[in-house]
Design goal:
The chain is globular and about 50 Å long. It is built from 12 helices and 12 strands. The strands form 2 sheets. It has an 8-stranded mixed sheet with strand order 5-2-1-6-7-8-11-12, sandwiched between helices. Strands 4-3-10-9 form a 4-stranded mixed sheet. The chain has helices at about 10-20, 35-40, 65, 80-90, 105-115, 155-165, 180-200, 210-230, 240-250, 255-260, 270-280, 285-300, and strands spanning about 1-5, 25-30, 45-50, 50-55, 60, 70-75, 95-100, 120-125, 130-135, 135-140, 145-150, 170-175. The protein binds nicotinamide-adenine-dinucleotide. Nicotinamide-adenine-dinucleotide binds next to helix 1, helix 4 and strand 9.
């Protein structure tokens, strides 16, 4: 299968590298020319559990060099999904499929503006990766990947894509109701990311004080109300689940925390920002998410 990864940073390079090692014909597409040049010159270097291996894989900054692809995986940050989808639209043929495993809500809908929604797959992954420098990533962790058709139709197509991922060692489950799965991950990000980003704390430290727990609880409860108003089924113990994840990832700094630490634009708009926007549309008050979003936007405006 010909695979194009659009956004070959930490996660795109990881998935692209694993798929290439499993024998798929993979192209990495990224706007970062230094990274692309390093991969073409010296291969993609993947560090995993202290050992680094080289993966030979083609990379480009030019979509036309790729031609069309059977599977396109969008792995840019959610702020860049529109630009990446526009590039992806140039890579599709009549049977192409497009998969997003990005964090946040709204990515699949943006992709579906460019590509027939029956060809869009979404999901979540517990894999983790860090960008070390041009041409070099660290594979930070493994865990389940869950995918499904964004339209809810043609579940056999999701099975085919899951097989391709599983062939690369990425254990993948398919579900019919993938929106609930993406919402489930969103609730975790809503409860952890902005708070840790604003305060400089690690995930586990969110549980140290009742005051931080309470902010997280209220942010998640607002998000649950918005999800339910949209007919999304979410777990009854959503807040406790967020706390469990904070405990399980206690020593990690959230991705939004890392973005703020490095003065990068965060995915706030697709996380707490979505709760505010959807809350306004549905007539649900979301004061905590509004505050968190406003504070992160203020930080970003003053980098
Ligand atoms: P990243 O910043 O490492 O990589 C994004 C890449 O996209 C960069 O290399 C950037 O140059 C490229 N890019 C930007 N605009 C582009 C465009 N228009 N066309 C092509 N390439 C473009 O980000 P990441 O950590 O790999 O995260 C990607 C997504 O995956 C995010 O939504 C993130 O929340 C999610 N995610 C990350 C992890 C993780 O461990 N890093 C885990 C799960 C989910």
């Amino acid at each position: 299968m010909k695979v194009a990864i659009v956004g070959a940073g930490a996660m795109g390079s990881l998935f692209g590298g694993l798929l290439a090692e499993s024998g798929q014909a993979v192209w990495l597409l990224d706007v970062w020319s230094e990274h692309v040049d390093a991969i073409n010159a010296k291969g993609l270097m993947v560090e995993w559990q202290g050992e680094t291996r080289r993966v030979d894989i083609k990379a480009t900054t030019t979509p036309a060099e790729i031609g069309s692809a059977d599977l396109i995986v969008i792995f840019v940050k959610s702020t860049q999904t529109r630009a990446a989808s526009s590039a992806a639209a140039g890579l599709i043929h009549s049977d192409s499929l497009v998969l997003t495993l990005q964090n946040g809500m709204g990515n699949a809908d943006v992709i579906a503006e460019f590509i027939d929604s029956d060809r869009v797959l979404a999901g979540t992954t517990a894999y983790g990766a860090t960008l070390l420098g041009p041409g070099s990533i660290r594979h930070a962790g493994k865990g389940p990947t869950i995918i499904g058709m964004w339209s809810g139709r043609n579940p056999d197509v999701a099975l085919r894509v899951a097989d391709v991922l599983a062939g690369a060692g990425i254990a993948t489950e398919t579900v019919e109701d993938v929106r609930s799965v993406v919402w489930g991950k969103l609730l975790i990000n809503v409860g952890i990311n902005a708070i840790t980003a604003l305060t400089g704390i690690k995930n586990g430290e969110l549980l140290d004080l009742t005051s931080t727990q309470e902010i997280s609880r209220r942010a998640v409860e607002e998000a649950v109300s918005v999800a339910k108003a949209q007919g999304i089924s979410v777990r009854d113990d959503a807040v406790e689940h967020v706390f469990e994840i904070a405990r399980a990832t206690a020593v990690n700094r959230s991705s939004m925390g890392q973005d703020v630490d490095h003065g990068r634009i965060t995915e706030i708009e697709a996380i707490n920002g979505v709760i505010v926007k959807e809350g306004a549309r549905l007539g649900i008050d979301t004061p905590v998410n509004q505050t968190l979003t406003g504070l992160i936007e203020t930080l970003q405006a003053h980098y």
